Amino acid sequence: LSHTDLFLEQIDPIFFRSEPFQFELLSNHSWLAYLWYPWQRSQGATGFRYELDKAQSSFEQIIQFLNSHPNRRLMVLSDSGGPYKKMRGSLVKLAVQTERPLIALKMKVDRFRTIHHHKIPLFGATIQPVFSRPIHPGELRELSKEAALRIVQMIWEEL
Fold first, then answer.
1. Which of 36, 111, 140, 158 gets the highest tally of CB atoms within 10 A of its CB?
2. Which residues contact 120 (CB under 8 A, 6 or more apart)?
3. How far apart, in whole angstroms, are the C-alpha atoms of residue 121 and residue 119?
4. Spatial separation of the C-alpha atoms in residues 27 and 7, rounded to whole Å
5. Residues 6+ apart with CB under 8 A from 78
6. How open is the CA angle 81-110-118, to the nearest 5 degrees?
7. Are 106 and 78 in contact (CB under 8 A)?
8. Measured distance CA(158)–CA(132) in Å, rounded
9. pLDDT at 39 over 60
10. Closest CA to 9 of 113, 108, 80, 123
11. In the 8-state DSSP scheme, what is residue 129?
């Protein structure tokens, strides 16, 4: 999911219950991450929050969480902080190290305004989550980081 679709995902009432995606929201323990928390919880979403000031890196904390919870999935905003709409190499690394598939996601909306790169739906807009096929770690493992990232980016852009 691109960070630019964040508000569409948060506002869509069916998103948190959509298949194939029963997931954990990934965020950190900053105050900003907690602004949406009451809404997310009211929609049945749960989350994993990593510590910013821990000796262990956020990536290592995420790996540890996934390895200790084999049946749980994370929703990652791979382009948070920018550049927007460009997937990061850490996404490929995460899939390969945890042996978990990636599922690209885009939020389609028929009527919206853009504010600071974020799509804000207009009243009465229809919001639809669109999921890719699973991108299995085996498809990415033998490729260079750049080639694997190009495949993930292309699949996401084609949604």
1. 140
2. 7, 112, 113, 114
3. 6
4. 15
5. 1, 2, 87, 88, 90, 91
6. 15
7. no
8. 9
9. yes
10. 108
11. E
Please give the Cα distance from 63 to 53 (Å, whole number). Answer: 17
> Contact 152/134 with Cβ under 8 angstroms?
no
* Spatial separation of the C-alpha atoms in residues 91 and 148, rounded to whole Å: 10
Mean pLDDT of the chain: 86
pLDDT tens for each residue of 103-134: 898 889 999 999 988 899 999 999 988 889 99
What CA–CA distance (Å, rounded) separates 150 from 159?
15
Q: What are phi and psi of 94, to 5 degrees?
A: -60, -45
Residue 56's alpha-carbon distances to 50, 80, 89, 151, in angstroms, are 10, 20, 19, 30
Residue at token pair 């990636």 = 102
3-state secondary structure string across 51-109? CCCCCCCHHHHHHHHHHHCCCCCEECCCCCCCCCCCCCHHHHHHHHHHCCCECCEEEEE
Neighbouring CB atoms inside 10 A of 56's CB total 11
Task: Quote the pLDDT of residue 115.
Answer: 93
Would you state the structure tokens that stand for residue 157, as one six-digit string?
């852009």
